[in-house]
Amino acid sequence: MTTVKGLQQRIVKALEKGQDPAPLLKQLAELRTQNAAEAESETTEVESSCRVCQHRERGAIDKALQEGRSLRDIETEFNVSRSTLSRHKRNCLAENKNIYHIA
Ligand SMILES: [Zn+2]
């Protein structure tokens, strides 16, 4: 498997030998694009398991849920679907109840 690091080393070697590194540089750019796309898809996967838990405003969402605000409200405010919110409330929030009692 070609890695970014491996390619960088090959580019350095090519330069040392006075070879043209252009094809390697092109390969490196392609590899980086590929890696970025992979990282993106990983993030999406994690989010799909529970988008609320991954949400950067999770604390505010949890608070809103605990205050008994309507899911429709929260959906609009944080752009998280109602089904995701109710699943989070049922699966995640209940388990972590103690944390909020202490906090
Ligand atoms: Zn959750």
Describe this structure in words.
- This protein is mainly α and 103 residues long.
- It has one domain (4-100).
- It has helices spanning 4-16, 22-49, 51-54, 58-66, 71-78, 82-93, 97-102.
- It is rod-shaped, with a radius of gyration of 23 Å.
- Bound molecules: zinc ion.
- Residues 50, 52-53, 88, 92 line the site of zinc ion (ZN).
Write the layout of secondary structure elements.
Blueprint: H1 4-16, H2 22-49, H3 51-54, H4 58-66, H5 71-78, H6 82-93, H7 97-102
Helix pairs in contact: 1-2
Zinc ion binds at residues 50, 52-53, 88, 92.
Throw out a few tags for this protein:
rod-shaped; 103 residues; 0% strand; binds zinc ion; 7 helices; mainly alpha
N/C terminus separation: 48 Å
Bound ligand species = zinc ion
Q: What structural class do helix, strand and pairing data support?
A: mainly alpha
Flag low-confidence runs.
none
Please state the CA-atom Rg, rounded to the nearest Å: 23 Å
Q: β content, as a range? A: under 5%
Count of helix runs: 7
Largest sheet: none
Which whole number gives the mean pLDDT? 84
State the share of residues found in helices, binned by percent.
over 70%
Q: Note the overall shape.
A: rod-shaped
Q: Quick one: how many beta strands?
A: 0
What's the SSE pattern? Answer: HHHHHHH
Estimate nothing, just give the exact number of structural domains.
1
